[in-house]
Amino acid sequence: MTHSDGVTDPPASPNTDAPAARINPHIPHPARIYDYLLGGKDHFAADRKAAEALIEVSPGTREGVRAHRAFLGRAVRYLAAEAGITQFLDIGTGIPTQDNTHTIAQKIIPEARVAYVDNDPIVLVHGRALLTGDPAGTTDMIEADLRRPEKILADPAVQRVIDFTRPVGVILAGVMHFITDEEKPYELVEQLKAAVPSGSHLLLSHITLDFTDQVRREEFTKPYDNSTAPMVPRTFEETLRFFEGWNLVDPGLVEVVTWRPDPVEYQELIPGGHAWAYGALAGKP
């Protein structure tokens, strides 16, 4: 179905075991909401409705999401160009869009290896079709769930891409705020941190309400209440805890728009002035 905004819903899938068959167009999904906010085309009416509800609560949401994405690009460039990281484990990657991890890394290091991990069928369908990288490098899209890090680390496809005896860039960009406290987010991250050697880096960004006193938490998270994953904003101190025991790269944990901003990069004016997200890089000693 094509809508008045020119967006066509992805086609319904036949009842098979293929990833496309497990896509539910009636339940909002964070990856598809994010895709809509970035201006993509891989989303359904339920995702658009949830995204517009979020924009109504926070008019700067669309611009903030783009600022969040720009932070990912700058941080990956740092990892490849300055930290010398040649392999990346990007978990909760979302639907491929512009400036994906492998695109940025392989421009700097053509032989860079990137394993994308996501549990959303629509991400897998589009990711496997769109993720083409430098032939000197390796790029793969793997189905797994962040809530089971042991399965990610033991997955044969992940092991083919990532050599865990060498430094790894572990990327958790905009995903930990979909892990509830009951799902033990800090323990999940610690398992990933423990699996990589000295010299590895953690790139993590997280939604927060620290920059507003006008929006109640329940109001902000309500658009995600009926989605496949609820949203859990966290404070500066709660986000900082994810990096415990590792050395933060200057300027530390800051709002994503202020993490090593690129002077030539287009910075959209965000209504309200904030992207409502923290971001940081940290290295394993």
Strand-helix topology:
Layout: H1 30-37, H2 45-57, H3 61-81, E1 87-91, H4 101-108, E2 113-118, H5 121-130, E3 138-143, H6 149-154, H7 156-161, E4 169-173, H8 185-194, E5 201-207, H9 217-221, H10 236-240, E6 247-248, E7 254-255, E8 277-283
Parallel strand pairs: 1-2, 1-4, 2-3, 4-5
Antiparallel strand pairs: 5-8, 6-8, 7-8
Helix pairs in contact: 1-2, 3-4
What features would you describe in this structure?
Residues 1-16 have low confidence and may be disordered. Strands 1, 2, 3, 4, 5, 6, 7 and 8 form an eight-stranded mixed sheet that branches. Helix content is 32%, strand content 14%. It has 285 residues and is α/β, with parallel strands linked by helices. It is built from ten helices and eight strands. The protein has helices at 30-37, 45-57, 61-81, 101-108, 121-130, 149-154, 156-161, 185-194, 217-221, 236-240, and strands at 87-91, 113-118, 138-143, 169-173, 201-207, 247-248, 254-255, 277-283. It has a single domain (61-283), classed as Rossmann fold (3-Layer(aba) Sandwich). Helix 4 (101-108) links the parallel strand 1 and strand 2 (113-118). Residues 1-26 are annotated as: Disordered.
What is the β-strand count?
8
Mean pLDDT: 81
**Radius of gyration, Cα only, in angstroms?**
18 Å
Instruction: Please report the first level of CATH classification, the CATH class.
Output: Alpha Beta
Please name the fourth-level CATH homologous superfamily.
Answer: Vaccinia Virus protein VP39
**Strand fraction:** 5-15%
Share of helix, binned: 25-40%
Q: In one word, what is the shape?
A: globular
Q: Number of helix segments?
A: 10
Q: What CATH architecture do you see?
A: 3-Layer(aba) Sandwich
User: What profile does the largest beta sheet have?
Assistant: 8 strands, mixed
| Secondary-structure element order, N to C | HHHEHEHEHHEHEHHEEE
Query: How far is it from the N-terminal to the C-terminal residue, by CA?
Result: 52 Å
- The CATH topology comes to Rossmann fold
Domain count: 1
Low-confidence stretches: 1-16
What structural category arises from helix and sheet content?
A: alpha/beta
Protein name: SAM-dependent methyltransferase
Keywords: Methyltransferase, Transferase
Region (Disordered): 1-26
InterPro entries: SAM-dependent_MTases_sf (IPR029063), SAM_dep_MeTrfase_SAV2177_type (IPR006764)
